Amino acid sequence: MAQPLRVALAGLGTVGAGVIALIDANRDLIARRAGRPIEIVAVSARDRARDRGVDLTRFAWLDDTRALGQRDDVDVVVELIGGADGPALTLAREALGQGKHFVTANKAMIAHHGLALAAEAERLQRAFKYEAAVAGGIPVIKGLREGAAANALTRVYGILNGTCNYILSTMESEGADFAAVLAEAQRLGYAEADPGFDIDGVDAAHKLSILASLAFGSRLDFEAVAITGIRQIIAADIAQAQALGYRVRLVGIAETSPEGSSTAGLFQRVHPCLVPLHHPLAHVAGSLNAVVAEGNFVGRLLFEGRGAGAGPTASAVVADLIDIARGELGPAFAMPVAALEAQPPAPAGERRARAYLRFSVADRPGVLAEIAAAMRDANVSIESLIQRGQTPEGGALVALVTHEGPERCVADALARLDGSPSLLGQPMWMHILDV
Amino acid sequence: MAQPLRVALAGLGTVGAGVIALIDANRDLIARRAGRPIEIVAVSARDRARDRGVDLTRFAWLDDTRALGQRDDVDVVVELIGGADGPALTLAREALGQGKHFVTANKAMIAHHGLALAAEAERLQRAFKYEAAVAGGIPVIKGLREGAAANALTRVYGILNGTCNYILSTMESEGADFAAVLAEAQRLGYAEADPGFDIDGVDAAHKLSILASLAFGSRLDFEAVAITGIRQIIAADIAQAQALGYRVRLVGIAETSPEGSSTAGLFQRVHPCLVPLHHPLAHVAGSLNAVVAEGNFVGRLLFEGRGAGAGPTASAVVADLIDIARGELGPAFAMPVAALEAQPPAPAGERRARAYLRFSVADRPGVLAEIAAAMRDANVSIESLIQRGQTPEGGALVALVTHEGPERCVADALARLDGSPSLLGQPMWMHILDV
Ligand SMILES: NC(=O)c1ccc[n+]([C@@H]2O[C@H](COP(=O)([O-])OP(=O)(O)OC[C@H]3O[C@@H](n4cnc5c(N)ncnc54)[C@H](OP(=O)(O)O)[C@@H]3O)[C@@H](O)[C@H]2O)c1
Ligand SMILES: NC(=O)c1ccc[n+]([C@@H]2O[C@H](COP(=O)([O-])OP(=O)(O)OC[C@H]3O[C@@H](n4cnc5c(N)ncnc54)[C@H](OP(=O)(O)O)[C@@H]3O)[C@@H](O)[C@H]2O)c1
Questions:
Q1: A293 in helix, strand or coil?
Q2: How far away is chain A from the Cα of B381, in angstroms, using its nearest Cα?
Q3: pTM of the model
C-alpha cells in the first residue's frame, strides 16, 4: 500500500476530537477507499491538559499551533480552531506557504479570506478544501463543485443553520416564544452561550456566500449578503403561518441573473421565510440542514442531512482528506480564482414576491384603515388580513399577506408607517418562498 | 488553456442528444470549471438520417459504433446505447482496451458486467464512470464514493425508478387503478411501450446493486437482489395505506450487517413499501428520485432530484466528463475491485418488521377467522385489520397490519393460507419502512 497521508490537526474541540474518533473507528475502511492510510501525526490546541475523550499520546503535541505548518512529516494541515482571523488565518497562510495541503471547517474565515487563500493554494498547487464549512456532513460543496458542475446554476438556497431551525421547529411544535426556546436550547447545548452568530443569521450568511461563489462562478462577496435573523419572530407569527399553510424557516438564498435584466447581478439574502408545505424545505425539521440548487439541465437538486455536530462535521473533514489522499486537489471554488467573475450586488427592490407583514398595533379605531391606506399608497395589494390575539408589546396583532409585487413597494409601505403612533414596536416582514 | 478533452458519443437518443445540447449550451462555463474545453469529436448511432434536434455535421459520424473506441483523436468514449450486453458491452471493452476513458449511463450493463469493466479500467489506469446510471441527475454516486467516503455505511435505500413513482403518486392523487395509470403514463411518454424493466422493479434493482457495492465496499451482486414490482398494487391498497398514515413507494433497500449477527451478509431488496408520512421518502412525488444513506458518523443523508430525462441525465454524464478533464479518475467502486469483499446474501427471514397484508376473500362467514388462525399459528400478531370494499377479483377486501416480528413468520402465515378456497387471487404483502 502507498505511503500514508500525514495529517496535522489544529483545534481539538467538538470537531477536532470528532476527527480523531472517526479516523480511529473507520481506519481500515478509509485506507481501502483512499488507497492509502490517513494518519494523524501532530496536534495542537490551547490546553494540553484538557481531557478530550481521545488518546492524544500517540501524536506529537505542539503548543505553537503555527508550527504544525512547518513540520516535515506533515502533508495536510487541518484547521478546526475557528474565527475569521487570528490563529486560524495565521495557520492557513503558514501551512500553504510551507507547501502543505489545507483543510478547514471554518466558514467565517472562508467568507472573509477564502478567495485570497484559494489563490495562494492555486499558486502553490496545493489543495484548499472546506466541505465541513457548509451544512456540516452534507456533501454539498462537492455536490455543487463537481456533481452539478455541468450546469449553469441560477439559484441556490437552503436551511443553513441548525440552531435556528431547531428553535423555529420547536417554537412551532410547542407554541412557545423565541426567548423561552432559545434558553432551553442553550440549556440542552443546541445553542451557544453567545448565540449571536447563529440567531442573527451571520453564520448562515457566511455559508450562503460560499455556496453562491461555487454555484455561480462569482467572486465570493460576503459583505453583500443582506442579513436578518430570527430574534423578532413571535409565537403568533408561526401560528399565523401555520394557519395559512406555511412553516417559518430561516432561508439563505442566492440568485444570479444576467446583465440587462431588471435585477442583474448577484442577489444574496438570509431572511426568515414562509415556506409552503408542499416545498421540501418545509419538512426539514429540528437541527437538520438542507440545500437546494437549481441548474439549467439538472433541474432542482436537494441535499439534506446533519449540518453540525462532531460526527457529521468530522465526516466532511475526512472526506476532504480522502480526496487529497486520492490526489483530487482541484481549485477550491470549482474554477481558478482568476476565472471567477465579480458580480455587482443585485438590488432586492425589483424582486417580485408575496410578503407576510405583522404589526403590533394600538387597540383603537382607525388603525387598520391607516395600514390599508399605506399599502394602497405604496401600491401593495393585500391578499388576506387577519386581526387576532395580542402581541408581546401588549398591542393587537395584525398579520397580512400581500399579492405578488415588487419588494420596493412593501418597503415603501413600511416607510410610510414608520413612526406612526398606531404601531407598537417594529413591524415584522417575512418573504414567502415561492420557488 | 489546456488541450480539450475529446469525446466520442455512442448513442444519440434521449440522453445522447441531451449531452450534445448541454455541451452546446454550457460550453464556456464547462471549460472554466473543467480547466479545459470538452469537445465532442465523433458520434455513432443506428440511423444516420434520423433528425435528433441537434446539429451533427460538426462531428465525425461512424456507422460502426465499436470503431469509436479505436480513434486516435478520442480521449473518452461515452456509451449511451443501453442494454446489458451487445454493442454497449463490446464498445466498453474496446474503448478501455484502446486506452480510452469510459463513461456510461447504462445501469443494466454495470449490474451485470460492472466489476469486470472496473477491473479492466483499473489495470489500464483509465476512468470508468457512471454517475448517470443511478438516479439520473442526482450526484449520488459521487455522494457515496466521495462525499460519504469517511463513513461505514450500514444502509442505503431510496426511490430509484421515476416511472414507478409517477404511477404510484398518480394512483394516490387520482384514486385510479394501476392499469389505467400505466396506460396514461405510456400515452404521456412517462413509461416505455415495454414497461417491464421499470414496473417489475428490475431497473431499480440494477441501481440498488450498484449503490450497495459502492456503499458497503462489497462485490456487486445483482443476482442476489430480491425483486417485486408494482403490478399487483390496487387502488384500495393505496387508500388503506393513506388511511393508516402511509404512502406507497417502490423502495430499493440494501443493508449490510456484521458476521455473527443473525442477518449477517448483504441484504438487497426492491419491494413496494408503506412509507410513514414523517419520512422524507413519503414526500418524493411524481417522477422524482431520492436516495438515503446512513453512515456511522454522518447519520442520515438524503439526495433528491430528477432521476431521468434528457437534461438531468446529461448533467450527470457531463459531470463525469468534467471529473475526467480535471484528472480525477479514481476507482469506479470507490476502492480497487480486489479490495471489495464478497458478501453472502443475507436471509430476509430474520428481519424484524411490520407488514401490510391485503387479501381478496370470498364473501362468506369464517374467512376472517381462517386468516386470523393462520396468523396465530405462524406467530404473527395483528395490529389492525379492516374489511372494507371490493377487490378487482370481485371479493371482499381484507387489509391488515402486523406488529413487528420476523418476516419468516409472515411468510409462514401466507404459506398456510396458500391454496385456501377462501382467497381469490394472490395476497399482497408490502413492508412498512420503519427506518
Ligand atoms: N461544532 C460544529 O458542529 C461545527 C460544524 C461545522 C463547522 N464547524 C467549525 O469548525 C471549527 C471548530 O469548531 P468546534 O465546534 O470544534 O470548536 P470548539 O469546540 O470551540 O473547539 C475549538 C478548538 O480550538 C482550540 N483553540 C482555540 N483557540 C486556539 C488558539 N489560539 N490556538 C490553538 N488552539 C486554539 C481550542 O483549544 P482548547 O480545547 O484547548 O480550548 C479547541 O480545541 C469552527 O471553525 C467551526 O465554525 C463546527
Ligand atoms: N432516458 C433516460 O432518462 C435515462 C436515464 C438514466 C439512464 N439512461 C440510460 O442511458 C442509456 C441510453 O438511454 P436513452 O433513453 O437515451 O435511449 P434511447 O433514446 O433509446 O437511445 C438509444 C440510442 O442508441 C442507439 N443505438 C441502439 N442500438 C444501437 C446499435 N446497435 N449501434 C449503435 N447505436 C445504437 C440508438 O440509435 P438510433 O437513434 O439511430 O435508433 C439511439 O440513438 C441507457 O443505458 C439507459 O438505461 C437513460
A1: strand
A2: 33
A3: 0.97
